């Protein structure tokens, strides 16, 4: 007996609604996890590696994470979104390793019956991810490199 | 043979270091000796004493992959992680 597409999508969401990967990210794959007939709005945020920061030319980036804690912090964001915006379904993925200019580093998707909530929840998702998820970014310039100054998620 | 054996006076804990902390220490994983009663803050202090560039930094600490406070008492077998301010996205 073959599972219906809906069952397959539900199972996929259960295992990979939050993920870390060294492979290129495709926002369409994440969108497929949250799309459903009752959701008239689908908001997707994709973070893309930019060629400059604070006036310095960036050659490429490297991302590092604490895998277990990053996944758990991302799962907490998903739960928070789905609790705070009833009817929302969220998924997110972050890429690790070396990324080139133009590569997608992070994707957050939220589906909801209506667009206002989808936009708001998606914005909340990426904003929260940036200050709570144990992932670090190192910028490589023409003349050196440095770890980007961030936010302490749980200061000692 | 009554009651549990007393805790040893010193034991080792595994410390994981990430990003700029990993580069300063020169390793992503070190074993450090601690004394019974030592807290997370004692472990950070001894690490910063050995690697002075850490002293100016603002760590978040986790024990066994859960964020915790500086007062958290360490136990044998604990896996401690010191995390720099995060900058994903």
Low-confidence stretches of chain B: none
Element-level helix/strand string of chain B: EHEHEEE
State the shape of chain B.
globular
Indicate the radius of gyration of chain A in whole angstroms.
17 Å
How many beta strands in the DSSP annotation of chain A? 9
Number of strand elements of chain B: 5
Overall average residue pLDDT of chain A: 92
- Characterize the main sheet of chain B: 5 strands, mixed
Chain pair sharing the greatest interface: A-B, 33 and 27 residues
- The coarse overall form of chain A would be globular
Topology:
The complex is a heterodimer of chains A (156) and B (89).
Chain A: H1 5-16, E1 18-21, H2 27-34, E2 41-48, E3 52-53, E4 56-65, H3 67-84, E5 89-95, E6 97-100, E7 104-112, H4 115-132, E8 135-141, E9 144-147
Parallel strand pairs in A: 1-5
Antiparallel strand pairs in A: 2-7, 3-4, 4-6, 4-8, 5-7, 8-9
Helix pairs in contact in A: 3-4
Chain B: E1 10-17, H1 19-25, E2 29-35, H2 40-50, E3 60-63, E4 66-68, E5 79-83
Task: Describe, in short, the structure shown.
The complex is a heterodimer of chains A (156) and B (89). Helix content of chain A is 36%, strand content 35%.
Description:
The complex is a heterodimer of chains A (156) and B (89). Chain A has 156 residues and is α+β, with helices and mostly antiparallel strands. Chain A contains four helices and nine strands; from the N terminus they run H-E-H-E-E-E-H-E-E-E-H-E-E. Chain A has helices spanning 5-16, 27-34, 67-84, 115-132, and strands at 18-21, 41-48, 52-53, 56-65, 89-95, 97-100, 104-112, 135-141, 144-147. In chain A, the strands form two sheets. In chain A, strands 3, 4, 6, 8 and 9 form a five-stranded antiparallel β-sheet that branches. Chain A has a four-stranded mixed β-sheet with strand order 1-5-7-2, sandwiched between helices. In chain A, helix 3 runs antiparallel to helix 4 (115-132). The longest helix of chain A is centred in the middle third of the chain and has 18 residues, at 67-84. With 89 residues, chain B is of the alpha+beta class. Helices cover 20% and strands 30% of the residues of chain B. Chain B is built from two helices and five strands; from the N terminus they run E-H-E-H-E-E-E. Chain B has helices spanning 19-25, 40-50; strands spanning 10-17, 29-35, 60-63, 66-68, 79-83. A five-stranded mixed β-sheet of chain B has the order 2-1-5-3-4. The longest helix of chain B has 11 residues, at 40-50. Chain B is globular and about 50 Å long. The mean pLDDT of chain B is 93. Classes of the chains: A alpha+beta (156), B alpha+beta (89).
């Amino acid at each position: 007996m073959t599972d219906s597409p809906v069952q397959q999508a539900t199972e996929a969401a259960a295992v990979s609604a939050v993920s870390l990967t060294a492979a290129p990210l495709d926002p369409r794959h994440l969108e497929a996890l949250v799309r459903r007939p009752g959701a008239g709005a689908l908001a997707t945020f994709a973070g893309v590696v930019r060629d400059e920061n604070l006036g310095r030319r960036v050659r490429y980036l490297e991302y590092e994470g604490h895998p277990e804690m990053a996944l758990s912090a991302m799962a907490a964001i998903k739960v928070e979104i789905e609790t705070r915006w009833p009817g929302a379904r969220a998924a997110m993925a972050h890429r690790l390793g070396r990324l080139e200019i133009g590569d997608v580093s992070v994707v957050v998707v939220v589906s909801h019956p209506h667009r206002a909530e989808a936009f708001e929840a998606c914005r909340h998702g990426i904003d929260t991810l940036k200050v709570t998820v144990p992932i670090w970014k190192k910028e490589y310039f023409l003349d050196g490199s440095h770890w980007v100054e961030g936010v302490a998620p749980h200061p000692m | 043979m009554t009651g549990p054996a007393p805790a040893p006076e010193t034991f080792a804990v595994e410390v994981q270091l990430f990003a700029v902390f990993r580069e300063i220490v020169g390793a992503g994983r070190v074993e450090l000796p601690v004394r019974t009663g030592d807290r997370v803050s004692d472990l950070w202090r001894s690490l910063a004493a050995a690697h002075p560039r850490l002293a100016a930094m603002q760590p978040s600490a986790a024990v066994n992959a859960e964020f915790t406070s500086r007062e958290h008492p360490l136990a044998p077998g604990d896996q401690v992680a010191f995390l720099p301010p995060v900058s994903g996205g």
